Automatic annotation (TrEMBL), chains A, B:
It catalyses: uridine(38/39/40) in tRNA = pseudouridine(38/39/40) in tRNA. The active site is at residue 52. This is tRNA pseudouridine synthase A. Formation of pseudouridine at positions 38, 39 and 40 in the anticodon stem and loop of transfer RNAs. One of its GO terms (molecular function) is tRNA pseudouridine(38-40) synthase activity. Keywords: Isomerase, tRNA processing. It comes from Paenibacillus aestuarii. The keyword Isomerase applies. It holds the Pfam family PseudoU_synth_1. Residues 9-101, 147-253 form the Pseudouridine synthase I TruA alpha/beta domain. Its EC number is 5.4.99.12.
Amino acid sequence: MRNLRFTISYDGTAYSGFQIQPNADTIQYRLEQAVHMLTGETVKVVSSGRTDAGVHAKAQVINFITTSKIPVERWCLALNSRLPKDIVAHTAEEVPLSFHSRKAAKRKTYCFTIRTARFPDVFHRNYEYHHPTHLNVEAMREALPCLLGEHDFTSFCTVRTDKEVKVRTLYEARLEAEIDDLSLNGGISRLRLYVTGNGFLYNMVRIIAGTLLQIGEGKRASSDMQRILEAQDRSKAGPTAEAMGLMLWKVEY
Amino acid sequence: MRNLRFTISYDGTAYSGFQIQPNADTIQYRLEQAVHMLTGETVKVVSSGRTDAGVHAKAQVINFITTSKIPVERWCLALNSRLPKDIVAHTAEEVPLSFHSRKAAKRKTYCFTIRTARFPDVFHRNYEYHHPTHLNVEAMREALPCLLGEHDFTSFCTVRTDKEVKVRTLYEARLEAEIDDLSLNGGISRLRLYVTGNGFLYNMVRIIAGTLLQIGEGKRASSDMQRILEAQDRSKAGPTAEAMGLMLWKVEY
């Protein structure tokens, strides 16, 4: 028995999220199907964490136990030729049998991308949320530091969740502005919110992004973020931002 | 009557090229259909040049004559809401009635992108040609300068063409290497061939790219490029590189 760990990327547009579910196309299903095609085995693919329907991954980490003797350096090519073109395995390595890609994850980074130019970027249209009206970037930046550290993030968690402990630690939350000559108008064409933490509640980054957008629009003050956090009440926060803007960026072990 | 000029971008993946043709979905058809939905008029959309099936445009220039009185600043939004999501108008301006986006074009730049990392970049999979084996970038670069200036480019033109004069002037031909952390392996993950000229023959950039790839693979010497150019014989050049890697980058007037 061997435990294999992979870094994979996927375009989540066509999928009902990572986790297998009945009558839906999912990343996990496609991965397990590819392993089955390759080895004949029925494995259970574990990931660093589920991603929702429409959410993408630049570098998701997965692992599974296999009895296959295929050399580790052949696995990515073998899987990629059995996976749809919107899921790609990039690296493979053999790890101790005890390794579990979710339980062992120390830090995860998500990126939420906001296209701020007047019109969408046609080549990124499925990977960013289009917000063509003015955003106060400074106000958005001022709202972020209060989220750093260990907090109960109940306000930023969907009420549809079974996780009882809502305490998580955020190590970083920053908003980067990109200038892109595709915008043709000059100025900021894209904002990227990078959030790094020891773990995330269900919809947590999307609710933070939705709240931050309201602050950028001037519907809320920067200082509201702290008040929302302290309220521990989902109804105080902003809406859940669109899944298409979210990408699992990096997982650290 | 007014002449309106637009900069548009499109993802060519789903289209049989720019130009209208029977029983095929084309960019021109979609543009003319959008104008018809907006104004009721049947216009003829002129572009800076046709792009082939599967070829993309970052900044194509088009124009058409309309009797509509819709203010110019409203046109992009109005068209975009009537266009499929893979075609986007970015800028609009009113130009003299005599302006013709193909005849007036002074310089056009195309970009051909080669993904050189071991595996595809899932988010750019439709916009670059994947070539995972070694390429000699220096040899490729040495082959380019001989193309600059005014030449008969018959060797780099498909035999299926009706253009009799095959003389064109290239102003620039450069190969840029990109490092992308998506490759996860370090090193060059992407090569971009930018070619600027006063005009291009049918398939010209794709045949130059196909020949350049053979030079990078060591199947031909850098000096072959000059010999191929001088032969004025399509059969001497390399294959036509895949359309998906090509993008109309810029048109200058």
